[in-house]
User: Fold these one by one.
Assistant:
Number 1:
Amino acid sequence: MSKAKIRFSGCLQEEEVHVDVENAIVELKGKSYGLGQLSLTSPVSGTIYGTLLNYKGALKVIENEVNEAPYNQPPKEPILYIKPVNTINGYNMPIPLPSDVAELEVGATLGVVIGRTATRVSEEHALDYVAGYTVVNDVTVPHSSVYRPAISQKARDGFCPVGPWVIERDAIENPDALELSVYINGELKQKNTTANLIRPVKKLITDVTEFMTLTAGDTLLVGVPEGAPLVKSGDHVCIEIEGVGTLENRVVHEHEIMAGGVKW
């Protein structure tokens, strides 16, 4: 069992619990619950910052484009974007499929949750500023342009499921060696590891806090690996990150959600 924080639907306060990551069991006040027995919302509420092109394979895919004008070289600094509050979604909650979109990309990524104010942090002490880790699905409408902020592709309502919990920092010995797997309808569709990050977790925190302050509750996404699976309405998405947890959601047409006709 590891310490973690969860948040129940309709509650503002987090609950400290013990979790069995492998078996998805939550121990609360002396009782054990399966995740399916709990109604959870996102365990994070601060600003969520995404990082673009931080996997070696993801950068390799667009190697030709980034070496052309106007950039003419790979990025030297972290490329960040924000997943605004309207995108934050919870474990087992539906991912809305917009009416004008046929498929979505699953953006499986490790979320690094900040525990205290971090400004110009050294790599040596970077993990001292981490409260814990969580699983995030940085959902995106498929697109090809890398020359402008992808607001309409990344900032749709419900496009950032997070959870099911934030596991304490010390439960993860090395955040730069975690296996990540994505299953669609029970079938393995993507497998990668945070060992393939261009900027490992410590380096990413150091580089980001060199020019901006991260505050307690903020979440820094380390990046999405190449080969993001595509999903359509009705698909069940399961993202596993070794030692951190398993995030599950189903894709649902947004008009079904608005009509209140979603069933699980």
Number 2:
Amino acid sequence: MDERNGFLKNMVQGTTGLMEPFWVTLKHLFRKPITEQYPEYKRELPPRARGRIVLTRSPDKEERCVACQLCSAACPVSCISMQSAVRQDGRRYAEWFRINFGRCIFCGLCEEACPTLAIQLTPDFEMSEDDPLKLIYEKHQLLVDHGGKDPDYDFYKHAGVAVGREPGTHDNEHPAANPKTNFP
């Protein structure tokens, strides 16, 4: 009798074990799929997502970058390089500006270091290329026609740097100090 009960018990367990995967498959057959078809469906990323780097413009549509090189100094992988120049009206700008996105780790330290809010990270992350040399972006590829996250910020307006005027001639601005007067 015990031998017969053991055989029936094993047969029920075996049949249950055999049918269980079919039951799981049948349950999932009528569920809504959770897979997102990436190229067709693009999830909206949060505004603080760190992706492609852009160079923004001030409200007067001038380049914000003054080529101070703080972003390249803050970059842990040294993927940012530039050459500074000064226009005839005294305004500094980047003669050339280059970012190697093949090396960039999108840490955002360059954005934090920038005093003019010129360099900003965007949520755009689709930059794959077959050739790594195509991941080196030049200034004309980085420069956008808007102010980015803070469109009303104007570095030259807040810093009081003379643009077209001599230093010390702005409203409420003290004349430039002579550093030699500090010597004993």
Number 3:
Amino acid sequence: MSIKGKAFIAGIYEHPTRKAEGIPIAQLHAEVAKGALQDAGLGLRDVDAYYCAGDAPGLGGLSMADYMGLDVRHSDTTETGGSSYILHVNHAAAAIAAGKCKVALITLAGKPRTGGAPPGRPPMAVQPPDLPFESPFKPTVLNIYAMVARRHMHDHGTTAEQLAWIKVAASHHAQHNPHAMLRDVVTVEDVVNSPVVADPLHRLDCCVVSDGGGAVVVVAPEIAAQLKRPKVRVMGAGEAIKHMGGGQVDLSYSAGQWSAAAAFAEAGVKPADIKYASLYDSFTITVLMQLEDIGFCARGQGGRFVADGGLISGVGKLPFNTDGGGLCNNHPGNRGGMTKILEAVRQLRGEAHAAVQVKNCDLALAHGTGGYLGTRHGSGTLIMERM
């Protein structure tokens, strides 16, 4: 069953906090839920489906439905790291198309800055089966992503300066976001002269760490027709998981090449049709890999694509992450998929900051990569249209 045109994103909300001292994670979930439902013109009693990932406390969806007083008949707790929320929109749209629900609420919340980092679900605290085989090599988030960047440099001649342009573009956008953690515009020299954290990645190649959260409300067409909000229609979505292949590791591509192909096929459009892209930006290399895997440029050409302001709104060929993204704005709960959806919806509604609003933005893409790009990860791609 296709989801094309079967569901709408009616409400969004991004929590303004970046340091949630004294606020429990459950309360953050409830606050973003309230904000997104108010944005849609709906209330908690209208919700009949709830979606969350491993950042929800206690028993996940069960605990949060109880906490918020939701009377739901459909739920989904798919967990693929930071890309979970893009998969949730896909699943919510499919559920609506199948008649299982009409108003689906999706929430994210986290507190890595103020002591709430460990996700609450018990399964994530259990030792994973790969640990005994990989832990002797001391993998960390930093050195795993650095390994991918070094591979791209070896294969294609990509430079640190080209990666730095991604951070430069994000900083140009973040200067207009009053909530962004890093609002100062930086140069290529600022990035490559910042301390090396894992060769070849520098400190400014990395995303920020923030508290906060966000929420999305997905509704059936008949509900969207009743609401006094701009209509953002879900056109297509795809998801995929890539792993270590029993030791046959290939660092040259991500699961995004499969999730994006499925999303474009369902939406009936191609990468050249996209006016704006929200791309997961845990590191600059994450963005560059996604540009190639989604099809915005040929493999190996990502460095040239982003150089000289290729991603800056009003300047470059593909405006990206106009809220400043994870590199400058926020990265609530160390999960960026939710905020990627939110800024794409703002662009389609014409509600992005005037300095970065893309003219005639009628087709946008949100893409997430959760887990670890160099090992096992889940990718989600979502294509949305303004009606």
